[in-house]
Description:
alpha+beta, two-stranded antiparallel ribbon, Glutaredoxin, 9 helices
Amino acid sequence: MKVAIYSDIVCPWCYVGEHRFRRAVEATGVRVEVEFRPFQLNPDATTDPVPVMDYLRARFGPQADAAHDNVARMATREGLPFLAREQLVVSTFDAHRLLALALQSYGASVQAKLMRELFQAHFAGRANCADAETLVTLAQQAGMDSAPVRAMLRSDEGKQELQTDLAHAIGLGVHAVPTFVFADRFALQGAQPVETFARVLEQLAGESAGDGDGRTTAH
Length: 219
């Protein structure tokens, strides 16, 4: 079963949602082919880091503190490392270009590893994920060669394609993330409970059981 996950690396709900989805895949054994698709929560962000609370308070007002602390507690309950109030808000454009390169050159499993490296660097490492050398390091940790990554980041490679993909997501009706699209026919939005993901996976796998048993281990 193909699953497209529209997400952004600075989205805490995407961080939690991807983790819960993986737990559901492991629990059910449903065979999935996951691709991460790009979405930018703040397309106007620059490569100059802004402390997360400065950004959130300017955008959402005083209630930003409680909302951010709530998702921090949720991430911690999931066992995810999360340095509350210490993230840096930057453009995620090059990170999405890197994720596209990972998928094209190495496949879905390396892209998934890279996504998790990016999530943890942002939410637990106070990393500037718009910095080229930071991205090179994270790519290496995910199993990618540094030379083509550096070459891509220094060039315009993938920029037009990414703009097209971002516009395509909006055209499909993706206006919030995470959004999980199952088999190109069923969409589920938000960091749903593990049980909800598991129920959807098992139902859709059952509907397509005639094509095979639909089960394997998770990536």
